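User: My instructor asked us to take a sequence, write out its structure as tokens, and then describe one feature of it. I'm not sure where to start. Here is the sequence I was given:
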Amino acid sequence: MLRFKEWMNHPGDTARYKVVDILLNADDEEKIYLEFQPMHFPPDPEIPDCYDSFRVYKTDYDKLLVEPIASVFPVMDPNPRGWGLQEYFDICAPNCFGREDWIRAIEAITKCAENASEPEKEFYSEIITRMRGFLDVNDMYCIDGNL
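Assistant: Let's start with the prediction itself. The structure tokens for your sequence are:
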């Protein structure tokens, strides 16, 4: 059954943002995750540098997300001072996407949902909805792993 945990992250003195954990098969105590989040560059005091995000834990991302996301690589980091061309999806580090690559990732995940079980379709639908929602926030996105 699809579950959600919502909480506030406090990475700095003034930065606060909401995180939603999305769990299908993952245990509530899992610690390894991918965090999906819009990002902003260059820094601008008028624009928040921390956006609401969501996390998917290892049990779920290994089974349901790594393959479709990896299929859109290589991608170009849209930050001119960033990583440049990212050859492969790295679950241990930040993966930066421009708008077109983010949309390609959404499309790849959408294809996986077509042949998924009903619980997996519900999971995919939640991921796709949230990723699409980020398109209204900014044109740069990140999937960052903590492995």
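For the description part of your assignment, you could build on this observation: Residues 3-145 form one domain. Try explaining in your own words what that tells you about the chain.
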